[in-house]
C-alpha cells in the first residue's frame, strides 16, 4: 500500500525503527520480502508490503566488484524497486521523485557520498528505458554528466577486463561441454550411465 496523505505523526524522513530486511530467494536473480518495510518522507509514508519482489540493487555483472547487489543500501534498493513497480507504474509518483527518494534514503543509511551519487546516476540512466522515466529527464538530471565524468575513468577499465575474462571463461566452458558430450556419447555406446551436461551461458547480468 502507498499512502500519500500527510500524516503529522510520521517521522520527518527515514525508515521506521522496526524495519528489517527479511527475504526468501525465488530464483537466481529475484527475492521476495517476508516483512513490511516502512519509509517516511515529507509527511508521506511508503510501505513495501510482504510478498514484494526485488533483485536488490540492479547492478550489471561487470560492476559488482565496485557496487555489490546488496550492502548498506539494501533497504534503499528494495524501496526503490517497490516505488518503480507500484506508485511510479500506476502514475501516483514520478520516476524522478522515486530516484530522489532512493538517493535520500541512501544518505540516511550512511552510504558513502560518491557511491550513493553514482548509484543515483545509474538509476537515472536506467529511467531512460521507458516513456515515464524520460519525461523531463534532461532538465532535471544534469548532475548525471559530471558524476559519469568522475566515475567512468575508475570503473570502465576494470569492466572491460572483466568482460574479456568472462568471454574467455565462456569459451573454456563451451569446450569443456563439448568434451563432456563426446564422453557421454562414448558411455552410451558402452551402455554406461551418462553424466549431466549443462549448457554454458554468457550474460552480463547476475
TrEMBL record:
Any matching Pfam family: DUF1353
Organism the protein comes from: Actinophytocola algeriensis
Name of this protein: DUF1353 domain-containing protein
Amino acid at each position: 500500500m502507498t499512502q500519500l496523505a500527510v500524516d503529522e505523526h510520521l517521522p520527518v524522513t527515514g525508515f521506521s525503527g522496526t524495519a528489517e530486511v527479511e527475504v526468501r530467494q525465488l530464483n537466481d536473480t529475484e527475492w521476495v520480502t517476508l516483512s513490511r518495510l516502512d519509509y517516511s518522507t515529507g509527511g508521506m509514508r511508503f510501505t513495501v508490503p510482504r510478498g514484494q519482489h526485488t533483485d536488490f540493487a540492479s547492478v550489471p555483472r561487470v560492476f559488482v566488484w565496485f557496487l555489490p547487489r546488496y550492502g548498506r543500501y539494501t533497504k534503499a534498493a528494495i524501496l526503490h524497486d517497490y516505488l518503480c513497480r507500484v506508485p511510479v507504474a500506476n502514475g501516483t509518483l514520478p520516476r524522478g521523485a522515486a530516484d530522489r527518494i532512493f538517493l535520500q534514503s541512501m544518505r540516511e543509511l550512511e552510504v558513502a557520498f560518491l557511491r550513493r551519487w553514482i548509484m543515483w546516476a545509474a538509476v537515472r540512466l536506467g529511467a531512460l528505458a521507458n516513456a515515464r522515466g524520460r519525461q523531463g529527464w534532461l532538465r532535471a538530471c544534469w548532475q548525471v554528466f559530471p558524476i559519469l565524468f568522475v566515475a567512468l575513468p575508475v570503473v570502465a577499465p576494470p569492466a572491460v577486463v572483466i568482460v574479456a575474462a568472462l568471454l574467455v571463461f565462456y569459451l573454456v566452458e563451451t569446450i569443456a561441454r563439448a568434451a563432456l558430450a563426446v564422453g557421454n556419447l562414448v558411455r552410451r555406446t558402452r551402455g554406461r550411465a551418462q553424466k549431466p551436461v549443462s549448457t554454458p551461458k554468457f550474460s552480463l547480468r547476475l
